[in-house]
Amino acid sequence: MTLQGKRVICLLDDEFEDLELWYPVYRVREEGAIVEFAGPQKGKTHIGKYGVPATADLSYEEMDASSIDGLLVPGGWAPDKIRRYPEVLRLVQEMDRSGKPIGQICHAGWVLVSAKILQGRKVTSTPGIRDDMENAGATWFDEAVVVDGNLISARRPPDLPPYAKAFVDALKNR
Questions:
Q1: Which CATH superfamily does the domain covering 7-173 fall into?
Q2: In whole angstroms, what is the distance from residue 5 CA to residue 152 CA?
Q3: What is the rounded distance in angstroms from the CA atom of residue 14 to the CA atom of residue 101?
Q4: For the DJ-1/PfpI domain, which residue ranges apply (predicted)?
Q5: 46 catalytically annotated
Q6: β-bridge mates for residue 47, sequence order
Q7: 81-127 pLDDT, tens per residue?
Q8: Of the residues 107, 121, 130, 156, which is catalytic?
């Protein structure tokens, strides 16, 4: 229970990649952290690409970076929706300024692109959004996990074990 007392928010919207949401959430919970889901509307259930549901514990408007220790952004098609909310972009920017761990996998990089926090950073993502990441000023690597300060990024579901470990380690060391 090395993360006892830590609070992590996982962003949520329809068509998240089921494994990319649930695997890191369970891994962080196994270490004792509290993980809550934030979505456009508190109490709304969102369905992943493969049919697994997740319900928002709080709305995007209720998120407060000062009470959060880490942020998880799953991939799938949800990031294209998530990045359209100013509250999300502000939270990502505040978390980054505070040096708090931000985990993103696959298409989740779109949220960081829209938050404009990638200039001069090292990242990975699904190769399909490599150009987006590089056009946002990041240096992109084709590696399972890239850690650059508080940013922890991964490419796709096969990278989940080292990605979740890197995120847990970042929370432990914070």
A1: Class I glutamine amidotransferase (GATase) domain (3.40.50.880)
A2: 21
A3: 24
A4: 6-169
A5: no
A6: 53
A7: 999 999 999 999 999 999 999 999 999 999 999 999 999 999 999 99
A8: 107
